[in-house]
Specification:
With about 100 residues, this protein is mainly β. The protein has 1 helix and 6 strands; from the N terminus they run ββββαββ.
Length: about 100
Amino acid sequence: MGHKGKFGHEFLEFEFRGDGRLRYSNNSQYKAENLIRKEVYVNEIILDELKRIIADSNIFKEDDKKWPEPNRVGRQELEIIMDGKHKPFQTSKFGSYGEVQ
């Protein structure tokens, strides 16, 4: 998720790779902070559980057609690539759970 505002382009990102690599990035320009990047490798049990959660959710059957379009406040994205299937989602940035309909 991210937005462009008075502190520049700020975003938060998580990426799981098939080889077990988990990458975290946080670009917050607030108080002149630098880009934070962390990497760790997770074992096959974690990857299998993540795949199970995604499969059980049936998210590949959903779409984002009725979601609010990204706007000047920002955008949130979810992209899933698993077992040869690709599913991207995007919507406007939400500040709190109360904004979700």
